[in-house]
Amino acid sequence: MYDLIEHAESLGLEVLFDDLGARHAHIREDGVVVINESRSHLLQRVALAHECGHHVHRHVHMVGARESRQEWQADEYAANLLFGPREYAQAERMYGPDVTLIARELGVPARMIHAWRRAWRANAHRVPRGFVAFG
């Protein structure tokens, strides 16, 4: 978690922990990311990486469906913080295209695998030859 806190701080964010009820995290207008202290370590990491994505993309507070463009961008940013192409390729070699098993291997929720795959598809022309990616 410390690596992600350092990353957030390098972006000019402050990270605090508090009980947020049903929410995993939120980013305040003053640049403070509040992480739900009652969530698992895994969900705290994902939430912080996701909120960093909102900050980097300069997203404004929104209300709407999870599938919104801003949420997808924040998830793609988070996925790239939480694991890299080598880790992904190794997990895929081990488990094939199975999202659940790859996610478990990488220690992230399945939505991070979907986000990483979206970002990979969007940038496939930049990927080195011979790189393995979901069949």
Name its key features.
10% strand, Zincin-like, disordered C terminus, 53% helix, three-stranded mixed sheet, 3 strands, mainly alpha, 135 residues
Percentage of residues in helical conformation: 40-55%
Name the assembly state. single chain
Which structural class do the helices and strands define?
mainly alpha
Query: What is the number of strand segments?
Result: 3
**Segments where pLDDT lies below 50 for 5+ residues?**
127-135
What's the N-to-C terminus distance?
32 Å
- Give the overall average pLDDT: 87
Q: How large a portion of the residues is in β-strands, by DSSP E?
A: 5-15%
Give, in order, the helices and strands.
HEEEHHHHH
Mind explaining what this structure looks like?
The protein has 135 residues and is mostly helical. The chain folds into two domains: 1-64, Zincin-like; 83-135, no CATH class. The protein is built from six helices and three strands. The protein has helices spanning 2-10, 41-56, 69-82, 85-95, 99-106, 110-122; strands spanning 14-18, 25-27, 32-36. It has a three-stranded mixed beta sheet, with helices on one face. Helix 1 runs parallel beside helix 2 (41-56) and helix 5 crosses helix 6. The radius of gyration is 15 Å and the shape is globular. The chain starts with a helix and ends in a 13-residue tail after the last helix.
Concise description?
The chain has 135 residues and is mainly α.
Blueprint of the fold:
Blueprint lengths: L1 H9 L3 E5 L6 E3 L4 E5 L4 H16 L12 H14 L2 H11 L3 H8 L3 H13 L13
Parallel strand pairs: 1-3
Antiparallel strand pairs: 2-3
Helix pairs in contact: 1-2, 2-3, 3-6, 4-5, 5-6
